[in-house]
Structure formats: C-alpha cells, structure tokens
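Explain this record to help learners:
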Amino acid sequence: MKPCIPNHIDNSSNTTVEQVKKALSEHFSGAAVQLKGPISVRDNSEIFHALIDSAVPVEAAVKHCLVLRTTDPDERVATEQFVALERLSSALAGRNTRYRVPAPLLLIPSLGTFAMCWVDGESLTKKLRRVAVFRHDTEWFEDVGAWLGNFHRAGPVRRQVINLDERLTAVENLCLPMPDKSFSEAIVILQKTALTLAGVEAAISWLHGDCKTDNFILNGNNIYGIDISLSHENPVEYDLAQFLNNLDLLLSSPKFLHLKGRQSRLEKAFWRGYLSNGPTVSEAYLKWLRLSFAISLWHTIQLGQTQNIRNWILNRMFAKLTNRLSKTIAPLPQT
C-alpha cells in the first residue's frame, strides 16, 4: 500500500486526526506522530499513513471505519476487524511466513479507528495493470491462491453437509425487474438444481468475507490479505465463489482488455496455489454458489441505477457472467 495522495487532511476530520495522533503517541511512549492522508477513501472507511518517530521508527496504516455513507465512526466494525487481525496474526505465525496479514498495533474503539503495520507493495488489481503482468501473472495468482488456502486451513476447519435454505430464500427475494432474461432464468436454474446438492459436504472454516483482487497485497515474496472480518464461519466455497466472480467481472472491464484470453490460465494458477494448501472443494456446490452470488450482486447494483452507458456496460457484463455460469450447472453434475 503506497501513499498516492499528497499530505492533506480535511478540516472536518481535524479533531479525529488529532485524537488519533495523540493515542498513537501515547502508545509509543510519547513519540512524535505524522499522519498523512487520507490516502484511500471509501464509502465506509478512510485510511491514513502514519510515521511514528519512536526509538525504532514505525510506519503504520491507520484505518478510520465509518458507518456506511456517513462521517460517524463505526466502533463495531473497527473492533471486529482489529480482533480479526489479532487472531489471524497469531494463527498464521506458526505457518508459512510468506502468507501474512498486517500486524495489529492499536485499537481506538471510540474513534472507530485502529492501526496496523504499514505494508509496502501493490494490490493484485494494480499488479494486473503493469507491463510485468505478462511475465508474472500466473505466479501472482498461484501465490494468492496459496494464501487463501493457507488461511482456510489455519481456521477451525470441519466438514458439514451444506444447507441451501438461506441462499435459496435470498435468491427468491430478488424481485426487482431486471434488464435481461438471464436473471430470471438463473433463479429457475438455481431452484431446480438445489436438490442435486442434497447430502454434499463442504469444508467449513473462517472466511475472508471480501475476497477480491483488491484485498491481496503483493510485496516481493510475501502476500498479505487485508480487510478481513472473520465475523462468520461458512463453507470455504463462499470465498472462492466471490473471488472467481470478481475476477471474471474485472477481466470483462475495458480497463483489462490487455488480458483478454488469459482468464483460464489465471484461474488454473489460482487453483494450483489453493489446492496445494487448502481443504477440498465441492465443484458442483461452488458453481451453484457462483451463480447465486452473481445474480445477488447484480440485483444489489441495480438498485437506484440510472440509465447511462456505464450502467449499460455493467449490465452486459453481469448478463454475460450469468449466462455462462448458468450453462455450467444446467444440468448440474453430481460430486
């Protein structure tokens, strides 16, 4: 994560910034603290870059969690993410040291803020825009797959017969009129094929929860997972479905036309990494989940959409993904 915005702090957040600097200074025995940013702004968080002039200088990423689309601090999310970092740092410490999370430093619950060690490097998404992608793409994806497999193995792994009731209810509640018939056809396919998954077992473990190329940082030989919540334990196929759908949509974007035709090799590299470290996966269940997640995300994005060229392209991307995934499970093979 490299700073990409010059030193500037919005006056509206000056009070919070000063409180964060004070807390960091006290934690590091009165060390001077510089806070730069925000270097990243989302609708539920902002991240700052901290330079802490302690006896051994420390660089930190400071994440300010916000209630969605407000300026109110989100104490619950900040605490949840910090505790997850603590648990993961401990769990991963005894495993392959290449697969990491940023080390937790300090939680400031009342400000919805926590600090973690700064990680130099770039997200997998940014790496895919570099010229080096044509030399290192499979290497990067194999490494990220290995990180995810190692992460799932580090959790409380157990096997359990899957229950589709919750996902089927979610699918059946998708009632917004959609712009393409592939959406309604997908719902029918999911309903008809659910019975073929009766009795299928899946590996249950903790989940990343936001498993996409943006949330893997590559730094030399080290791979870091970020923005992990650990709030739920579910089949590992949840993370895998999310990652593969995200990759599919990413490579459908005009920004990544230079990778046209390379998706299959990237997915194969990812699976080499994952299967070398992770638990076994039900292919049939994964295909079913991918279609379920795809139309749920499509439905969510449709809410409040206006008609413009960007949204037309987005709908075409989702329709293409939905059609392709529907064909993979109709009829659905047994595992």
User: Anything to note?
Assistant: The mean pLDDT is 90. The radius of gyration is 21 Å. The chain has two domains: 11-117, 122-328.
